[in-house]
Design a protein that fits this description.
The structure holds two protein chains of two kinds. Chain A is mostly helical. Helix content of chain A is 64%, strand content 6%. Chain A has helices at residues 3-11, 22-35, 38-65, 81-99, 101-115, 117-121, 128-146, 148-159, 166-193, 197-221, 223-229, 233-241, 247-267, 274-295, 314-321, 338-354, 397-408, 433-454; strands at 244-246, 301-303, 327-331, 358-362, 381-385, 388-392. A four-stranded mixed beta sheet of chain A has the order 4-3-5-6, with helices on one face. A two-stranded antiparallel sheet of chain A has the order 1-2. In chain A, helix 4 packs parallel to helix 9, helix 10 crosses helix 11 and helix 13 packs antiparallel against helix 14. The longest helix of chain A is centred in the first third of the chain and has 28 residues, at 38-65. By secondary structure, chain B is α/β, with parallel strands linked by helices. Chain B has helices spanning 43-50, 73-76, 92-103, 108-111, 129-142, 159-174, 186-192, 210-217, 224-231; strands at 5-14, 17-27, 32-36, 58-63, 66-67, 77-80, 147-151, 178-183, 195-200, 203-208. A six-stranded mixed beta sheet of chain B has the order 6-7-8-3-9-10, with helices on both faces. The longest helix of chain B has 16 residues, at 159-174. Classes of the chains: A mainly alpha, B alpha/beta.
Chain lengths: 455, 232
């Protein structure tokens, strides 16, 4: 046997008998690298006070609205923990996902590129998919670690005997998970594509600013841009914060996350030609565009809010589901007109979830609507079905539904006897929260960092 | 004799600049081949092309008698780059354990010859150049690959350490492993290598044992320095 064959026979790795599988060793390595990353510890250090401030402010405002200190309480029905506590408290994570978490993700790639570790990593056992997946899983673990202050705030709220509705709280957490991983995926892709960490940071922040610009432009342009803007991280997160779980939003966010990590996998191996990288990047972007386009046709959604804010009453929903004819609504309201925002939120969002065939046309000629003339039909909302048209200016739910029932020749349901949402007022001071988030949390983080650093 | 590795007409350009021009040479099993050349000759680029870490513009690599595409090279050869500080925040002991677990190997036979015991608890970022080199050599020697490409393996080592490392490398070749070393210190190359590949300005100007190269260069006696100067 030739000498090199002797060597190979003696040193061949038998994966089936190996005590440590390469994928787990790589996973452990990434975890260790995360714990060695100062950006991760800085994120942990900052997330506690950030969440704490949001929680204390939310509890204080909720208590004021509930009539603490003898003041008049707001209408109890308006007091929902989703709006009053969960969304504002976890809003701190949106800030972290935008400005802090991407740096942890960038560091995970850029450090190895800078110090030469990537040259070794690419030669180590395991496929590239396993190596990129290990990084993705560790970033996921990092997010769960940062979630701890949020979970503490929920525990505190329960300790104050505050009410929480499990599905809507879980939905908000799921939205933040998708939003953070989306940021991480963009950051990882940028870090893999670009030479250094600072360029990757600029591109990642540029992506976020770009989505804000898209939302701004879409708000007065409408049309396709508005459809696209519904998938920006902030817009998508707003759905979750409203207790709405939309399948198309979830699909698009997950597709962007997967695309980000796939792009990282395409650009990390230094041995690939520019041509291969550019062509494969174009293919990934085309597939992503196809998924976004296809997702627009998916209308499935679930209203997980306790007060069913995204749905009509059960009896109205049952009546609307009997309507199979297409409904066309022409709204002659400018994008910046607050009446359009109300109509979108209170009527259209619910109608799109209930009616199978609905087409909405935005007919205003201007952006602000301030200088529209009466002959332009400004302010009118036209409902068209079975060749019949009815114009209404009101955006009140009962008026709109009656108009639709009339057009569809469907009898309006009897007045619903559903119990109204009771609301959950709670007048309480955020006891112990300041100590936990501003003192104990930073101390624990610094102490744990010091302990791990000593290993 | 069977060839372990055959490199045929490998070329690499960075923009308009040709860094490797039709580089061809062979590596026999169990030998130590020295890749010799001045700074900028293309040694590191050649190693990175061989390891599949940068794309070559042309040429092929054969393992025994089979073409070895870039994506399969990591199964056959392991390349240890020069001037890298991987996993800088970790300790040497972690890096050693990482490779032990990854390759199901043991570092025990490497700790004494490479004098790792005293630096095991040090962070990789805090190591001196020589300590870092010894650590990285230990990692590369733990890999199971039949062919190792080591870029400047003696850079940063003192005389005694250089001698010890040479002994260790030689010992590995007696067990059937093949080594290719990129060396710019010609004296070191003459001491440790069985054969030499002389690279100058991206082209191979000579390949063979020292007597073969002496004959080619037309120098009756003299070391690698004289041969290299005569051939370039």
């Amino acid at each position: 046997m030739p000498s090199h064959e002797v060597w190979r026979t003696q040193h061949r790795i038998n994966l089936s008998t190996q005590k440590y599988r390469p994928e787990f060793v790589l996973l452990a390595k990434e975890w260790r690298e995360l714990l060695a990353s100062r950006s991760f510890w800085l994120l942990l250090l900052m997330i506690g006070p950030l969440v704490g401030h949001a929680f204390i402010t939310a509890v204080t405002l909720y208590s004021e609205a509930s009539g603490i200190g003898g003041g008049p309480a707001a209408l109890a029905q308006g007091l929902t923990p989703l709006d009053g506590l969960v969304s504002p408290t976890f809003g701190a994570y949106d800030l972290a996902a935008t400005f802090l978490f991407p740096f942890v993700a960038i560091r995970m790639i850029a450090a190895e590129k800078q110090n030469g570790g990537l040259k070794l990593l690419l030669q180590l056992p395991g496929t590239l998919a396993e190596k990129v997946s290990a990084k993705a899983l560790i970033l996921l673990a990092a997010w769960f670690a940062t979630l701890l202050p949020g979970l503490i705030s929920i525990a505190l709220w329960k300790f104050y005997v505050g009410h929480l509705h499990g599905p809507e709280t879980a939905n908000v957490l799921f939205g933040h998970l998708l939003r953070t991983m989306l940021s991480a995926a963009v950051a990882v892709a940028a870090a893999a594509m670009l030479e250094n960490a600072s360029s990757a940071a600029i591109v990642t922040l540029g992506f976020t600013v770009g989505t804000w610009a898209l939302e701004y432009v879409a708000s007065f342009r409408g049309g396709f841009l508005q459809q696209l803007a519904a998938y920006t991280p902030s817009s998508a997160l707003r759905n979750f914060e409203q207790g709405l779980l939309r399948l198309n939003t979830t699909i698009v966010m997950m597709a962007i996350i997967v695309a980000g990590f796939v792009l990282a996998g395409l650009w990390l191996p230094t041995g690939r030609t520019w041509r291969f990288r550019l062509v494969s990047t174009a293919v990934v972007m085309l597939i992503l565009a196809g998924i976004v386009y296809g997702a627009n046709t998916v209308s499935a959604s679930w209203d997980v809010s306790e007060n069913r804010r995204n749905s009509f009453s059960y009896s109205d929903e049952a009546a609307l589901r009997q309507i199979n004819q297409p409904l066309k609504i022409t709204v002659v309201l400018a994008p910046e007109d607050p009446r359009l925002a109300d109509f979108e939120r209170d009527i259209l969002r619910k109608l799109k979830r209930t009616l199978p065939k609905i087409q909405v046309v935005y007919g205003a000629a201007s952006v602000s609507g301030l200088f529209e003339k009466s002959e332009d039909h400004y302010g009118e909302i036209w409902y068209e079905m079975n060749g019949q048209k009815i114009m209404e200016r009101s955006a009140i739910e009962q008026v709109v539904l009656e108009t639709i029932y009339k057009l569809a020749r469907v009898s309006p349901p009897a007045k619903s006897d559903e119990a109204p949402f009771p609301g959950y007022p709670l007048a309480i001071r955020p006891r112990a929260a300041a100590w936990i988030f501003y003192a104990a949390w930073p101390f624990v983080i610094v102490f744990v960092w010091w302990l791990i650093r000593r290993r | 004799m069977n060839k372990l590795l055959s490199v045929d007409r490998m070329t690499k350009r960075f923009g308009d600049r040709s860094v490797l021009r039709d580089v061809s040479f062979t590596v026999q099993p169990g030998e130590v081949v020295g890749l010799i050349g001045p700074n900028g000759a293309g040694k590191t680029t050649l190693f990175e092309c061989l390891a599949g870490l940068i794309p070559a513009n042309g040429g092929s690599v054969k393992y025994v008698d089979q073409i070895l595409p870039p994506w399969q090279r990591k199964d056959i050869l392991f390349y240890l780059p020069d001037a890298i500080v991987p996993w800088a925040e970790q300790r040497v002991s972690w890096a050693v354990r990482f490779f032990e677990r990854l390759y199901h190997a043991s570092a025990s036979a490497l700790i004494e010859p490479l004098r790792l015991r005293e630096i095991m608890k040090s962070r990789i970022a805090s190591l001196s150049k020589g300590e870092l080199k010894r650590t990285l050599l230990a990692l590369s020697l733990m890999t199971p690959h039949p062919l190792l490409l080591l870029d400047e393996p003696f850079d940063g080592l003192d005389l005694r350490q250089t001698r010890d490392v040479m002994g260790l490398l030689k010992q590995h070749t007696t067990q059937g492993r093949t080594l290719m070393l990129s060396i710019h210190q010609l004296i070191d190359a003459g001491r440790v290598c069985d054969r030499l590949v002389l690279l100058n300005d991206g082209s191979v100007v000579g390949e063979g044992t020292i007597p073969e190269l002496q004959a080619k260069a037309g120098v009756a006696s003299g070391g690698v320095e004289e041969i290299f100067l005569a051939l370039t």
